[in-house]
Design a protein that fits this description.
heterodimer; A: about 600 residues; alpha+beta; 8-stranded antiparallel beta sheet; B: about 375 residues; alpha/beta; 16 helices; globular
Chain lengths: ~600, ~375
């Protein structure tokens, strides 16, 4: 085991993680130049477009040190977004060390701070690496000071590299094998393998990325998933270089993939432990938990004919995304659909985009909401993830909303803006600490105020310099009410929202106003009302369109005019008919964009 | 599907100046027109096109543009003669030529009449000089009145005036003044259009600032239609009004989904092929120079086959529902080759929605249906 080094690379988006990984693969000869496609670790299209990693992956490399000794390096690539904090912690649990890659010009950002703290907490050896030292704006001394102040680790001998040019990377590997300890474990003990991540492959079924902690994982052996108690036979094991290479066995300390005839990713959940069915371990590895979605939204096919196709698409996505939850739901206004649970807004956007792109579905997604706890007058506690399901006011004793702690790191000149923003979102400041040019602040804030566009707003009021991370704290009673939207007198349940009483009036007005802007003029007047209970708090009217007719159309025009009409129709595709009124899909998300800009 | 009536459209693409609202295939003349070469090209083109019309009689001819009245009487006579040699023309065919109501053109009216043109369509647009200037027109209100008089004295009994409303700085009184001025001249036909900002026009790129609001436009239409009706101009299409028996037969043929040959730069043709069960649309080269080089060769036109029944239904509705009288189910079946049963449910839904009505054998748009024709046509999308 002495020659094995398991580590992960912690970096903020754009700080060069993928480029560095590419460079390591190149130096260790994992792929030939011709096979070398830039940023091999991010394989899904969407991941590439968004520049983020969703699934954890690993690469096993052979590094021949100048001493002549050959090391097995296992790089475990982690997801890179606040929505995926649990997956990050499991990836880190598979490692003995981590490279903290910091852009030598930009300095430390909150996301890497959060991940780095997790790494330090889990007992990993963290090696600071300054990347992009070739940039004219690079200021390694300042950044070293920042790392020491903010993260609290010694960074005096931080390695300086340029992943882009390859400068210093080989030397970095020498430091790595010296400083990061080899894995410890019992090669002859009962098998314990940590599931770092699982994904569904159309041909192979579920493939799990594992770190063997104790014992060994052998082809043909019978294994047990400890949380479910289900047994299955190991078909194949192997490593990625990043090409998939089959092996007979994965030994203690090693990282690799395993295929064991499991049908769904749920059957091999992240953080779970694999053991030997014939000689099971007494205890699973610590830290496993079932992931719970934070935000819920209704998703409905615009055309009800697509319902079955939609159900199948969700089932297929779920094969590969155990964080995605869905349950059938019926809305008076939108018909049959599903209430879907997501880790956060990014996760939701990704799912929505994939459904529309890969499965060619036309969907309406309602505004995402958090899970409220409702104490009824009968003394029951209900979990409410859909405003439409809130019991009548006279049956509610108390509504409790989820509160999170947001840790924000921001250059001091934007501090005022951030504090204003947090106050607008009902945030309560808990801590503030000056760290060099940056300020770390912690706020307690309702999750509902955070899940919408808080992150985008934070970026915009700090010109992109702030970064943040958040953790769930508790449910807490709050004065919340439901605002309903009525279109031509009919309540559209999918447009209801739960807001704080003090904001109800303003939100209601803004939402009605926004609806007026979004709902196109139709053949008759459309009345939009916002109401709390039976109390109308705002009213707007979309004036009828006087006409919709082409002034002229002759022989030569037909093809052109037909295209014009087709264009009009294209615009209507994303609209949903309510009685006689057509409401565009944006209207359902408008709930998100109100009350945030002023 | 059966073969419907046939018309001929001839396109003469030049104008003195391109108007900022115009999206037709027209070009500024600049210098002398290649009259003879162009007429020769048209006839070469027709030699080829005439093949498709074998055994069929042409019911109407429309010479449009552009500004056809830029062409001399001699050139138009040569064109008409050439057409008669190549096609069988009905003895009572309607033969229209579009004319600009300017002073120069008016001197040619008599020659056009002699050449066989029996209907003039004059692009007056407005009788108010500030509005004419805003539209970039080259003539004045006075020119228009004089040109009309000359058309009548040249023997044209059947004259259409094109008028536009919802012009820059327009209100009800201004628009009605235009209509009164037109009515006072006593034309047989009025085409009264709302100014529309069409794609690829100067107005679309930079719209005039003082266009009237929707409510004003609506008031103009309501009062204008009443005035026209009082004076015996019955509305028969979205923007067309005629005295009894003087509906434009050429345009009616478009709206009734008839066939037409089209020659000239950018001209379109539609031909029904009952045996193949399809409709062909052809478009000629748009650029006059290219057209003149290629006329008479297969390279001069592109062919689009309208094969799908769904497409035929939409195109039929786009045209037929523009007519106040609507259409008869039997004619629908003959022209599209689509069974009535395929669209009956959509028709019933539109009747229930108040956009269509049935009277005897006919199906026609209601007053509301006429206003929301795009929505009405959309209801027939993807049917059949």
């Amino acid at each position: 085991m002495d020659h094995i080094r398991n580590f992960s690379i912690i970096a903020h988006i754009d700080h060069g993680k993928s480029t560095l990984a590419d460079r390591l693969i190149e130096i260790c000869g994992g792929l030939t130049q011709r096979e070398m496609e830039s940023q091999v670790l991010d394989s899904m299209d969407l991941e590439r477009e968004r520049g983020i990693t969703i699934k954890a992956q690993s690469v096993t490399l052979e590094f021949k040190a100048d001493t002549g000794r050959v090391y097995q390096l296992n790089i475990i690539d982690t997801p890179g977004h606040v929505d995926f904090a649990y997956e990050v912690s499991r990836s880190l649990a598979a490692c003995e060390g981590a490279l903290l890659v910091v852009d030598a010009a930009q300095g430390v950002e909150a996301q890497s701070v959060a991940n780095c703290h997790t790494a330090v907490d889990q007992g990993l050896t963290v090696l600071p690496v300054l990347n992009k030292i070739d940039l004219p704006a690079a200021d390694p001394d300042r950044v070293i000071q920042e790392i020491e102040e903010i993260i609290g680790i010694d960074a005096t001998d931080a390695v300086r590299v340029s992943a882009k040019l390859g400068t210093g990377v080989r030397q970095m590997l020498h430091v790595l094998v010296d400083r990061i300890p080899p894995p410890s474990g019992e090669p002859d003990g009962p098998l314990k393998a940590l599931i770092i991540d699982s994904w569904f492959d159309n041909y192979l079924g579920v493939v799990s990325l594992v770190r063997v902690v104790d014992g060994s994982l052998r082809v043909g052996s019978k294994i047990r998933v400890m949380s479910t108690g289900r047994d299955s036979e190991v078909d194949r094991v192997g490593i990625s270089t990043p090409k998939k290479i089959d092996r007979e066995v994965l030994q203690a300390g090693e990282v690799g993939w395993v295929i064991a005839g499991i049908k769904e990713v749920d059957g091999a959940p992240v953080g779970d432990t694999l053991t030997d069915a014939g000689r099971p371990a007494k205890e699973p590895l610590p830290g496993f938990k079932r992931i719970k979605p934070n935000v819920f939204a209704g998703m409905y096919p615009i055309d009800q004919v697509d319902y079955e196709a939609f159900r199948e698409a969700l089932a297929k996505l779920r094969l590969n995304d155990s964080a995605l939850q869905y349950e059938p739901e019926t809305s008076q206004s939108l018909g049959f659909g599903f209430r879907c649970g997501f880790l956060g807004m990014l996760h939701m956007e990704i799912v929505q985009e994939r459904l529309e792109r890969e499965y060619d579905l036309n969907l309406i997604t309602t505004a995402p909401t958090v899970v409220y706890e409702v104490l009824t007058s009968a003394g029951e506690v209900l979990q409410v993830d859909n405003p439409a399901q809130l019991p009548p006011v006279n049956r509610i004793e108390e509504i409790r909303e989820p509160i999170i702690q947001a840790d924000v790191l921001v250059p001091h000149q934007f501090l005022g803006n951030v504090m204003t923003l947090c106050a607008e979102r009902r945030g309560v400041q808990k801590r503030m600490q000056y760290l060099g040019g940056q300020v770390a602040i912690a706020y307690e804030m309702p999750l509902s105020e955070m899940v919408t566009d808080f992150f985008d707003r934070l970026k915009s009021v700090t010109r992109g310099y702030a970064s943040m991370d958040y953790t769930f704290l508790r449910h807490q009673p709050a004065r919340l009410v439901k605002v309903d939207i009525l279109i031509n007198g009919d309540k559209v349940d999918a447009l209801s929202l739960i807001v704080h009483q003090d904001n109800a009036q303003r939100r209601g007005r803004e939402l009605a106003e926004r609806m007026r802007q979004l709902i196109p003029r139709q053949m008759f007047d459309v009345a939009i009302q916002a109401a709390v209970g039976s109390n109308i708090i705002a009213r707007e009217t979309v004036k009828a369109m006087r006409k919709n007719v082409l002034a002229k159309c002759y022989g030569g025009d037909v093809t052109r005019k037909r295209k014009l009409l087709e264009k009009q129709k294209e615009g209507k595709k994303r609209m949903k008919q309510f009685g006689t009124v057509e409401i565009p899909q944006e209207a359902f998300m408008a709930v998100l964009s109100i009350g945030k800009d002023k | 599907m059966t073969t419907p009536p046939l018309s001929l459209y001839v396109h003469l693409p030049w104008c003195v100046r391109k108007c900022p609202y115009c999206d037709f295939n027209s070009y500024e003349a600049g210098g002398s027109l290649p009259e003879d070469d162009y007429i020769a090209a048209l006839l070469r083109d027709l030699d080829m096109e005439a093949e498709c019309a074998r055994g069929r009689i042409v019911q109407s001819i429309f010479v449009g543009g552009g500004t056809p009245s830029l062409f001399s009487g001699r050139a138009i006579a040569a064109l008409m003669e050439g057409i008669r040699v190549r096609l069988a023309i009905a003895s009572d065919a309607e033969v229209t030529l579009e004319a600009n109501p300017g002073a120069a053109e008016a001197t040619r009216f008599e020659a056009y009449r002699c050449a066989g043109v029996n209907r003039l369509s004059m692009g007056v647009q407005s009788f108010r000089d500030p509005q004419l200037r805003a539209l970039g027109r080259v003539h004045s209100a006075h020119d228009a009145v004089r040109a009309y008089a000359m058309a009548r004295s040249a023997g044209f009994e059947n004259v259409n005036l094109d008028l536009m409303y919802a012009l820059p700085a327009d209100g009800v009184s201004g628009a009605l003044a235009d209509l009164r001025a037109a009515i006072a001249l006593g034309p047989t036909h009025l085409s009264w259009y709302q100014l529309t900002l069409e794609p690829d026009t100067a107005f679309h790129r930079q719209p005039p600032r003082d266009l009237p609001e929707d409510d004003v436009v609506f008031a103009i239409e309501e009062t204008g239609r009443e005035l026209l009706a009082q004076h015996g101009y019955a509305r028969y299409e979205v923007s067309a009004y005629a005295t009894p028996g003087r509906q434009c037969r050429h345009n009616l043929n478009y709206w009734q989904f008839g066939d037409y040959l089209g020659i000239g730069a950018g001209a379109h043709a539609k031909l029904t092929m009952p045996r193949e069960g399809r409709i062909e649309r052809r478009a000629r080269q748009r650029n006059p120079r290219t057209y003149m080089c290629q006329a008479g060769t297969p390279g001069a036109c592109t062919v689009e086959r309208v094969t799908g029944p769904a497409q035929r239904v939409v195109e039929y509705m786009m045209n037929a529902l523009r007519l106040c009288e609507g259409f008869e189910p039997a004619v629908f079946e003959r022209r599209t080759g689509v069974a009535w049963a395929k669209i009956e449910a959509s028709v019933d839904a539109a009747v229930a929605g108040g956009l269509l009505e049935r009277e005897g054998a006919r199906v026609r748009p209601t007053a509301v249906g006429m206003r929301y024709l795009n929505d009405l046509v959309a209801a027939f999308d993807a049917v059949a």
